[in-house]
Structure prediction request, 346 residues.
Amino acid sequence: MACCMKRILSKRLRLKVGRLFGAAPTSCRGFHAELVRHDCCGLPIVHHSKYVCELPANHRFPMGKFPRVLHFLLQDQVITDRQVWRPEIASKDLLSCVHSEDYLSKLIAGKIDEQEQRRTGFPWSEGIVRRCRYETAGTVLAAEIALQRGLACSTAGGTHHAFPSYGSGYCLLNDLAVAAKYLMDSSPTKRKVLIVDLDVHQGDGTAFIFKDESSVFTFSVHCGKNFPLRKQQSDLDVSVEDGLEDKEYLSKVEAHLPWLLESFHPDLVLYDAGVDPHWEDELGRLRLTDQGLYQRDLYVMKTVVSKGIPVASVIGGGYSRDIDRLAVRHSIVHRAATQVWRECGM
Ligand SMILES: [Zn+2]
Prediction:
């Protein structure tokens, strides 16, 4: 696969990409980071030990996957711990760029009623709120780093079912929307953000949040028969049938990403690399393989980076009772990003 990539990316292109993105920052000032361990030669990975929290026994959400993603990246020597950036907790102020004051107050104080808790799939706890705040800050930090260095990947994120005033489908805060809105507003020229959401479920919360915002383009490829039952309208929805396999799936992505980049001209891409289109996933209905996910992630990040556009990735959805198998599957995006980083001379 490495040889194939080298043929695709000419030396000229690699030099061009290397020049497009600035040098590594020398301090974490101005970033949503509490700890930065610089390694100017490696792909930045955003992770926090508080991405995880306790859940009731036998809860269906595979909470244990988050630390295991980092574990396998280190164990397999895909990254070193010097590449890891640690986000600081997201302030209420940061979250309020997307979420309503009333919702944030209720969420933080534990005043979410039972019906609302059922809709999220999680019983309320201080731990779950804390983990979502770190996760959201991680996505913001990955996007900030990507703007400086071209590419960065969090080991969590992709909570695209959260709406401004309520949570849904295992999502309490919409990290993609907060990152997009914050980075759009923090630039005097109003940055344009393209959200590429390849989780198997539609990014309904994100689509709703940005339905009237011309500076953010939402692109979702999802299984039409899957959750949520009631879809929102993204700027571009590609609804696919059950059982889709690698080749057909990839052709859907390839049919749209290049023209979207050409016509929308984003300043930043946020990439939700959900692994729930995998054939073994308990909630997906598609039939992608590990290799198919790798090709997808490589294609998306390589296509964006080679146009000189920064990209930050989040892991998105993935559901299995076998936590380690799932964590390795989620680490595919970091492995593909490492290849892009190396071969683009970043
Ligand atoms: Zn999903």
